[in-house]
Write a sequence for this structure.
């Protein structure tokens, strides 16, 4: 009973009013957050140990006694993985009757299914409302969202957040950007909540045909490069913020604040760890659900690489820790002839080039005895004929200047680097044709099975 006191204090202290929670948030002591997490963590471990077939089996095999577990470290090297959720029946994780379900998206054939109660969905949305309030959302604002609602969680959790704030809201869904632009322009929406890649298409239209006054834009589903963010902000004359989440967290792992320096974590609903950090603090983000009763997850490996940030940001949510922008996924760090490569290398190289579209992909292939890194790029459609050659020359110059180590390996013949220019929309089109996947994998290892290029597409090396 006494272990639940911190949780009760948190609920009584902060209450159920969004303005009240936002006003009191700067006064929440860090010790209260940590005490709430500790109490809820112990309760979660005991719950899954008693009601989940998967966790019962795993704990028994490892000699773990749930009642003795006080903190994540007590579980040793035990983690829950994506493979567990795909390979085991979803019911093996369920601890109480489910009322809502969503599917993850990805590059594998079998999607993961995550179940919730209606109360859990509402509570996650309520916490998300505090993050939106911190960005400036108020009941007088008019919001439109362009999220895909098919089997996905983002739109549903957003709906609960907007209901908590009490603002006007229209579901635009993931229409073609041109149709979306035509239909919503006259509504006077001053807040846009959108899919990251989709926002690029909408902004290209707005750049040609005009914008309207916008307070801020919130994007989600995947990372946005800082160069793209700067361009979108310049077109709309408004700040672009990013949210971070996975279906396993109902899309509510964290959200940026006005400082735009990392994501404030949803620490009243999750306990986060960074495991196996490197000397710079970057490691894999792992989380345990703290308030879920239907399908709790214990030490779930997100596969996202990030680090905790310590410097203060000065916003309302200072009591909640922040993580850095996601540097890539564990399965997108590839060892090859070039070295250890990950998305940040290519983002750094390509960033700031106004002639390139936002979508790109680096594929590691091995058509012969040597690794070939094939960088697939899309040019902006308005570029004049022949501009590709200038873009290519500039990219080779930047590569040699920015990455002398990789350039040395290339000159030594340890690998081959090729640029592949594709028509605008090719990479995203292939993604959508492949099924329900929404995220474009930036670095892929195709050495096991060769992938044919689209007809008419050529490769080029440095000239």
């Amino acid at each position: 009973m006494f272990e639940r006191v911190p949780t009760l204090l948190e609920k009584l202290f902060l209450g159920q009013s969004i303005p009240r929670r936002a006003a009191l948030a700067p006064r929440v002591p860090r010790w209260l957050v940590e005490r709430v997490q500790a109490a809820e963590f112990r309760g979660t471990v005991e719950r899954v140990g008693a009601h989940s077939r998967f966790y019962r089996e795993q704990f028994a095999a490892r000699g773990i006694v749930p009642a003795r577990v006080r903190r994540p470290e007590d579980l040793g090297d035990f983690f829950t993985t994506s493979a567990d959720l795909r390979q085991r029946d979803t019911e093996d994780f369920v601890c109480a009757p489910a009322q809502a379900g969503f599917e993850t998206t990805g590059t594998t054939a079998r999607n993961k299914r995550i179940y919730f109660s209606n109360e859990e969905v509402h509570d996650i949305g309520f916490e998300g409302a505090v993050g939106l309030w911190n960005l400036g959302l108020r009941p007088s604002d008019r919001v439109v969202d362009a999220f895909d609602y098919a089997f996905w969680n983002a739109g549903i959790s957003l709906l609960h957040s907007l209901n908590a704030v009490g603002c006007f809201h229209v579901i635009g869904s993931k229409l073609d950007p041109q149709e979306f632009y035509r239909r919503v322009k006259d509504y006077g929406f001053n807040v846009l909540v959108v899919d990251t890649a989709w926002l690029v298409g909408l902004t290209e239209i707005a750049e040609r045909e005009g914008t309207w006054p916008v307070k801020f834009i919130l994007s989600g589903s995947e990372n946005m490069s800082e160069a793209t963010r700067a361009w979108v902000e310049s077109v709309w004359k408004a700040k672009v913020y990013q949210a971070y989440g996975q279906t396993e967290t109902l899309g509510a792992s964290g959200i940026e604040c006005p400082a735009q320096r990392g994501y404030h974590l949803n620490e009243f609903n999750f306990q986060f760890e960074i495991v196996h950090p490197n000397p710079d603090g970057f490691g894999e983000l792992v989380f345990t659900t703290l308030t879920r009763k239907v399908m709790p997850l214990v030490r779930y490996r997100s596969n996202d690489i990030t680090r905790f940030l310590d410097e203060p940001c000065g916003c309302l949510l200072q009591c909640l820790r922040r993580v850095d922008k996601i540097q890539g996924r564990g399965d997108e760090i590839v060892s090859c002839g070039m070295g250890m490569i990950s998305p940040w290398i290519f983002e750094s190289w390509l960033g700031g080039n106004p002639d390139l579209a936002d979508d790109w992909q680096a594929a590691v292939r091995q058509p012969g005895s040597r690794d070939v890194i094939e960088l697939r790029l899309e040019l902006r459609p308005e570029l004049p004929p022949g501009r590709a050659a200038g873009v290519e020359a500039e990219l080779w110059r930047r590569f040699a200047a920015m990455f002398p180590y990789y350039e040395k390996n290339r000159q030594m013949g340890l690998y081959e680097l090729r640029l592949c220019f594709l028509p605008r929309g090719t990479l995203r089109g292939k993604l959508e044709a492949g099924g329900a996947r929404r995220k474009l994998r930036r670095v892929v290892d195709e050495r096991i099975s060769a992938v044919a290029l689209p007809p008419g597409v050529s490769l080029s090396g440095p000239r």
Q: What stands out?
A: The CA atoms of residues 152 and 371 lie 37 Å apart. The domain at 333-460 is CATH 3.30.300.30 (GMP Synthetase; Chain A, domain 3).
